[in-house]
Amino acid sequence: MKKCFLVPFIFCAGLMVMALPAGAQQYIVGEGDVLKITIYNEDDLQQTVRVDGDGAIVVSFLGKVPVKGLTVTQVSEKLAKLYADGYLVEPQVSVFIEDFKSQKATILGQVAKPGLYEIRQHTSFLEFISTAGGLTPDAGGVAVIKRKHGASEKEQVINVDLKQLIEKGDAALNIPIEPGDNIYIQKAQMVYVTGEIKKPGVYKCEDDITVIKVITLAGGFTEKAATTRVKIIRKSAGAEQVLENIKMDYIVQQDDVVFVPESFF
Known about the structure:
alpha+beta, wza like fold, 5 helices, 3 domains, 16 strands, Outer membrane lipoprotein wza fold like, 5-stranded mixed beta sheet
């Protein structure tokens, strides 16, 4: 290690910080992050440190250095100035994030593995869903992201159209996930189809779906179906209502039971 005394020709502009990728420069370090510190031509000062609960790191010769709330670039600059103060001449310091631990977001609802997950810089919405195991078959067409900004923690609500994003590939909806985001994947509206139908079962009821579309999803009528006497059983305010002789363009609602009776002839 090249130790030296301060001399007059050492000036602030002489401190050098190694260039970092644009995204990493603005990452704000926090508790649990693991930082790799290297100094050009000072191999014995290369070290890997973890940000402790106080938001500080313990660095060779410098001891405990507070870094909470600083970007990666600011940490590099701070270490360079500290090492230049009686230890090194024009230190070229670079800091990289080896393990991201402080930045987390929550995802709940219709994903395979709901929970709290760490995020890296520029983690996209689809990448975060993938981290949570992907969408379940019952996932609806909308995701809700609740995000807090500033000291006032004013909440922003962002709705993401999953159909537009996933099926139509609208990349503008694949927004970056930010630390502290709470994401909820809504359950799809479901409709039940039974009776003289080829594939009775439960089907998604999205985008004002009609009776004929639901029946088509269920494989269509059987040969015994009374196609003009379709019924809908609907629960409203705790009571069950039976709607008779429903037309094919009738809009079904969530949790409706579409019943196709058998023809008498």
